[in-house]
């Protein structure tokens, strides 16, 4: 049978608002398949976002959902998880939401290692507001605010997450659709803060300014740029020039925040 | 033995005409008809499901 996405989508919400060929829809489908594969109960699963095109995702999901303020998904999600540690908490959002205005919340959620999964849809741009550059816009790329080319170096989201202390970090792309749910399944099952960066496309505000003549050209770029970590081990630095590693990039076990906080409560009660 | 053909359903009111399913189908089963995708050559379908997986708009369903 074809996969039944309708089971996880709020009735009457489709078609969604995303532009033709926008990868956010591909990511949402991967997330749905992952939720189904892990067997998460809709009523015990919170999907939390900030603001942006990517952050519109929870509105379509028939789960417990929170659409919050720009960049603040991690803060609200942390509140949900602290109050209800038994809940599955999944954050979703864009590169602008997560690494610009929300960068601070992002790194501290990583540092705390709180048991949540964060899916960051990196289309290298502020899509919703018309294509201003984000901290993930590549050097030299054009945005509405960098018409002569972006002078800034871009963040490597996965490395940022690893450096800040996330205990599971993976990367996929909107082109490699079969891999998306596999990475999200592993991220959900990992105990601790898990980050899944999905390299995504925004044909409307990024593609047309950066010489991508079609959605297909953007998809082909994702196809060509991605190298699975295993394959990369056998490649020379020259061969890896300009490539981006995909797959599970980092996985370690460390104390989880809600469990550690429960111990604080115990100690405080014993001290009374 | 006669091979069993899949059914490919395209929900036209969801399709935004992005071309992704058409372009990346390995056996060129699909085509664009105006602004929406449509099935051109069902016999060639190898049931790889890639069109269904990649469609950003929940517009294509393949039942193998
Ligand atoms: C406090 C605040 N500042 C600025 C904005 C305007 N704003 C809305 S979405 C957005 C950027 C979204 O970019 P990203 O998170 O990459 O999502 P995308 O649209 O690319 O999916 C900005 C700057 C806002 N809504 N709130
Ligand atoms: S503006 Fe860009 S990110 Fe927003 S829906 Fe359109 S293609 Fe997607
Ligand atoms: S299932 Fe595979 S072969 Fe069949 S139409 Fe879809 S992409 Fe083409
Ligand atoms: S991938 Fe989906 S939205 Fe795009 S043309 Fe095919 S059916 Fe239509
Ligand atoms: Mg973006």
From TrEMBL, chain B:
SUPFAM superfamilies named among the record's database cross-references: 4Fe-4S ferredoxins
UniProt domain 4Fe-4S ferredoxin-type: residue ranges: 6-35, 36-64
Single GO term (MF): metal ion binding
Gene3D superfamilies for the chain: 3.30.70.20
Signal peptide: none
Keywords from the named record: 4Fe-4S, Iron, Iron-sulfur, Metal-binding
Source organism of this protein record: Geobacter pickeringii
Name of the protein this chain belongs to: Tungsten formylmethanofuran dehydrogenase
Highest taxon of the lineage: Bacteria
InterPro entries found in the cross-reference section: 4Fe4S_Fe-S-bd, 4Fe4S_Fe_S_CS, Fe-S_Ferredoxin
